[in-house]
Amino acid sequence: MSAQTELTGVDLTEEQRELAAMVREFAEGVVAPQAYEADRTHTLNLDVVRQMGEMGLFGLPFSEEYGGQGGDYLALGLAIEGIARVDQSLAITLEAGVSLGAMPVYRFGTEAQKQEHLPALLAGEALAGFGLTEPEAGSDAGATRTTARLDGGEWVLNGSKQFITNSGTDITRFVTMTAVTGTVPRADGGERKEISTIIVPNGTPGFTVEPAYDKVGWNASDTHPLTLDDVRVPAENLLGERGQGFRNFLSILDEGRIAIAALATGAAEGCLEAAVDYASKRTVFGAALSTRQNAQFTLARMRARVHTARLAWHHAARLRDAGRPFAEEAAIAKLVSGEAAMDNARDATQIFGGNGFMNEYSVARHYRDSKILEIGEGTTEVQLLVIARSLGLVG
User: Fold this and answer.
1) Residue 377 is among the residues annotated as catalytic for this protein
2) Annotated active-site residue in 81, 255, 329, 377
3) Which domain of life is it from (predicted)?
4) Nearest of 163, 165, 160 to residue 146 by alpha carbon
């Protein structure tokens, strides 16, 4: 498939096309050759992360004031999609580094926090994580049990987090933690948890990055459970207003869904390209597999999924960049693209036959990697709930 195939049907500027082409060349020349070994050894290639930083990918949607590229979320999505075609682990490293690491500081941080943290994060010299999920709090983030109390000008944090991306690399600077910092009254006379976000630097006494998970997929992505045992950080490490942590995170999550949708679209595209190439070369009963109508119909459906997913995330990104409401559209994009990635991975594996079950082939890794796209940053069910509420449905 040509380098222009993935741009068909969308209206991109020349600058955006150049960005997509640059990332595609980098993905094929640098990222793809190391993907199998990184997956096999469960190793995040920090040299490739550094090169992504030098290309400006981590700084795409941020202002030049802090070392960013002055771009937008559509540009970020193009970069994530291009990387995800060949390696979802590095794509999620970029996505989480921007959406969950740097973006909360950029959106809600004080000027001092921005000056301290953003330059290194936007340059790809450092990574940061976002500690939301807990053993009892995933989709129900309001069930957060990690606590933080003020004591002598310091926050004292206790609790645990799980499934936290970019939390334990050699270049991870901090993890922003959601924590219960008190209670606030409800309209019905009861109380609800006051949830705030607090920056906890890696290496702080009592902050333990537990051993990495043994995952089904995204094996080269850095993911750890975290433990906080009387962790003390300065009071000025509060990120955003006290009590606004959950609300702020939801807005970050809406943006992140666009980025995840771009990642899923790239994965679906990678599966399609690999399957078309394999079917064209694979001979069965004296003819190329691609001449068989059943294979052609499978590949056509895969193409339709890629096209639909791409239009969905582009639309959500353009709404976001225009300052218009986009939460429903982001949920639709996440839903459609996540299912497209999983469906295309399954179909591509079937096209490959026995070879599709071998990890050395990209479709096998996409098959393992893509399932999380229907779970992470909001499950399929959560996306359906968001869409249903936009229709005025309650209950």
Assistant:
1) yes
2) 377
3) Bacteria
4) 160
